[in-house]
Amino acid sequence: MQALIFDVDGTLADTERVHMAAFNHAFREMGLDWVWDEALYTELLNISGGKERILHYWRLVNPGVKALNVQDLNDRIDRIHQLKTAAYELAVNQGEVSLRPGVLKLMDEALAVGLQLAIATTTSPVNIAALLRHAIGSDWRMNFSAIGDASTAPIKKPHPQVYLQMLAALQLPASQCLAFEDSSNGLRAATAAGLATIVTPNSFTAHHDFSGALRVVPDLSQVNLMQLRQWHSASLR
Predict the structure, then answer these.
(1) To 10 degrees, what angle do helices 70-93 and 125-135 make?
(2) Strands 177-181 and 146-148
(3) What's the rounded Cα separation, in Å, for the pair 234 and 48?
(4) What φ, ψ does residue 98 adopt, rounded to 5°?
(5) Distance (Å, rounded) from C-alpha 147 to C-alpha 118?
(6) Which of 168, 37, 166 lies closest to 179, judged by CA?
(7) What is the rounded CA–CA span in Å between residue 231 and residue 236?
(8) Tag placement on the chain: N or C end, fewer CB within 10 Å?
């Protein structure tokens, strides 16, 4: 095992409620009467990517409507997403999001023995930077050998594109890496890239099907590098 590859939203931190609030803020700013509550947002999380989620919902509430041409619709979605991202970044900077239990300890343990760390997410670079700058510090990028996000991997999970990109960047085979996810889409993406995957569900994903995961654990607080090596080694037999 030479590298650990982490998803971000829901895996590194419980971000989804803050994302949901940021979406609702953006809708109000745009004069829309949309309100995403927890039940609805849980369903919408089956759609990977914020812009994709907005488009999916727009089609749900406007079935068959052709009032906007494609460019106008894309421009409106871009503007909603910009407002949402700004609201999310502000919330993170105000301390409304923190890393999940055990995450930072495991990262430090891995770095101390020379393992590489990478990020494989469908979220935007701004969201990653806001979260990790607040949680780790201004030099947070120094901890990661490779970062894949919505700007580098336009084909979202469950497609394995972002994981395949990270394996190429790390110059390692999947058999020498371990992935961390919180959702079925993320698990499917990681396993499609050949990665053994640890799943740490949260309240938005606890009902997902995690068949094929190497392990499903509540969080990483009781997980150490020795255990991970044992689990990973067993997965190769």
Answers:
(1) 0
(2) unpaired
(3) 31
(4) -135, 160
(5) 6
(6) 166
(7) 9
(8) C
How is residue 141 written in tokens? 């990028």
Answer yes or no: are the C-beta atoms of 122 and 48 closer than 8 Å.
Answer: yes
pLDDT tens string for the chain (237 positions)?
A: 999 999 999 999 999 999 999 999 999 999 999 999 999 999 999 999 999 999 999 989 887 666 667 788 889 999 999 999 999 999 999 999 999 999 999 999 999 999 999 999 999 999 999 999 999 999 999 999 999 999 999 999 999 999 999 999 999 999 999 999 999 999 999 999 999 999 999 999 999 999 999 999 999 999 999 999 999 999 998
Identity (one letter) of the amino acid at 207?
H
Burial class of residue 40 in the structure, from the number of CB atoms within 10 Å of its CB (0-12 exposed, 13-18 middle, 19+ buried): middle
| First-last CA distance in the chain | 14
CA distances from 9 to 45, 126, 179, 211, 234 (A): 11, 13, 14, 20, 28
Supply 89's token pair.
Answer: 């970044």
- Tell me the catalytic residues: 7, 9
Asked whether the whole model's pTM tops 0.90, one would answer yes
